[in-house]
Specification:
With about 400 residues, the chain is α+β, with helices and mostly antiparallel strands. It has six helices and 23 strands. The protein folds into three domains: about 110 residues, conserved putative lor/sdh protein from methanococcus maripaludis s2 fold; about 100 residues, Elongation Factor Tu (Ef-tu), domain 3, CATH 2.40.30; about 80 residues, Helix Hairpins, CATH 1.10.287.470. The protein is about 30% helix and about 30% strand.
Length: about 400
Amino acid sequence: MCMNRVLLNTVFISCLMLGACKKKLPPPNPEVPVNLLKLTPKTVLYYENYPATTRALNQVNLLPQVSGAVTGMFFTEGTQVDKGQKLYEIDERLYKAAYDQAVANLNVSQSGLVEAQQDADRYVYLNKYNAVAKQLYDHAVVTLEQAKSTVKASEQQVKTAKTNLTYATVYAPFTGTIGISQVRLGEVVTPSVTTLDTLSQDNPMAVDFIINEKNLPFFEKLQHEKIKVDSLFSLLMPDNSLYAHLGKLSIIDRAVDPQTGTIRVRLVFDNPDHYLRAGMSCVVRVHNQDVAPQMVVPNKAIVEQMGEYFVYVAKDTVLKVSADSLKKLDKKAAADANKAKLIAVQKKVQTGQVIGPDIIIKSGIKAGDKIIVDGLQSLHDGARITTANKVGPGGGKGGRGQ
């Protein structure tokens, strides 16, 4: 009985294996179901975005020119100050004393000059009549010249003392916003070493950003031809709100950085409400000036490979099948074998501006091409594809930015 049962099980398993072998095997290269998009150029309006930084058109670190203790501060930190406004006062007692002494020395020198002038005049008169020794006359003339030189030296000492006394008070060199003071009352400062504060001009405000050298001709054209376009340069604030004022192209830097192939561009924005502050990170939006139709494809149709971008284009082709291969196919497969088929061809493209779910293609494809917009994860160059009675998968996992 046990032997018969083993034989029955063996026969049953053999039948199952035989039935499985008779099942139709899947084709070695199945067609990938996809959806296609026929390209048609169209006009698009968009902004090119550039990371930017706000900078003061004029900014200076306030440094003391004389040493001493800070005895006065005459401003409110973080507020606007006017040109010529008194900001700091450094202990001026020593400089006032030095000035007074220099003035006194000048008075003494001037008195000596008067005396020397009188003696010289007297000896000149006497010398005219040979009534005085020649040596006394010569000494009188030399003494007069020395007295004049002493007066000039004293005058320069007065100027120096007066300058030092003036430096004891620090004034605003221009109108702008002053920061938080780096020193406090009573603190001793040193010339050209201690920084008192920083003053920056904030209206108008500069905004700097970096462009690729390939875009340089476009910006040079804007600078030299003075093209007037509404909303050409606008600014996105750090919170992504749109700044109320439009910018103007001010400066293009003198040279391209040979290491990065980039160059700095500066815009100027009015800043009457002082919303812009130096050092802010923002985004410059440059209005698209290209009115020619452009190729626009869904962003998900882009495949990125090692920093390069590709799309798959559907191409008609005839796949020649050998006679031996035809014998192995059933009648329907053999009939369809040599018919025209769709295959996916990978094309390298140059991408442009992203516009919502779409992206501009600058080169690599042309009008009329049929690109594959889904199922990209199942494709490779030369893969067979189909759109007949099938719905392409939602795919797009290989798409740029996915």
